[in-house]
TrEMBL record:
SUBUNIT field: Binds to the N-terminal domain of the chaperone ClpA.
Hydrolase among keywords: yes
Keywords linked to the UniProt accession: Hydrolase, Protease
Domain Adaptor protein ClpS core residues, every copy: 21-98
Protein name: ATP-dependent Clp protease adapter protein ClpS
InterPro entries: ClpS, ClpS_core, Ribosomal_bL12_C/ClpS-like
Protein family (similarity comment): Belongs to the ClpS family.
Gene Ontology molecular-function annotations: peptidase activity
GO biological process: protein catabolic process; proteolysis
Purpose: Involved in the modulation of the specificity of the ClpAP-mediated ATP-dependent protein degradation.
Matching NCBIfam families: PRK00033.1-5 (NF000672)
Length: 103
């Protein structure tokens, strides 16, 4: 008599959940004729955690192109960063503005 030794197999059913990434938003600084460049660089380094070289590059984009991209984030984070920039600028007496837009 031969005996077939097949391993027991078990059918596993996994419910597949589709995980979607949250929509992303661009955080933009807008140029004005009054906010000092040094203030803008310091603000970018502080709020967006950019190094001095990156912050200077963004500041120059703001100055020459009218706006500069500081980062792309999920909506809640983008809104928080926008609020931080606008409040810090206002509290420091500068008219610098920040806005967000869908990526």
């Amino acid at each position: 008599m031969s005996r077939h030794n097949a391993p027991d197999t078990e059918l596993l059913t996994r419910s597949q959940q589709k995980v979607t990434e949250p929509p992303l938003y661009r955080v933009l600084l807008l140029n004005d004729d009054f906010t000092p460049m040094e203030f803008v660089v310091e603000l970018i380094m502080r709020v967006f955690r950019k190094n001095e070289e990156e912050a200077t590059r963004i500041m120059l984009n703001v100055h020459t192109q009218g706006q500069g991209l500081c980062g792309v984030y999920p909506r809640e984070i983008a809104e928080t960063k926008m609020t931080q920039v606008n409040q810090h600028a206002r509290n420091s007496g500068h008219p610098l503005k920040c806005r967000i837009e869908p990526n």
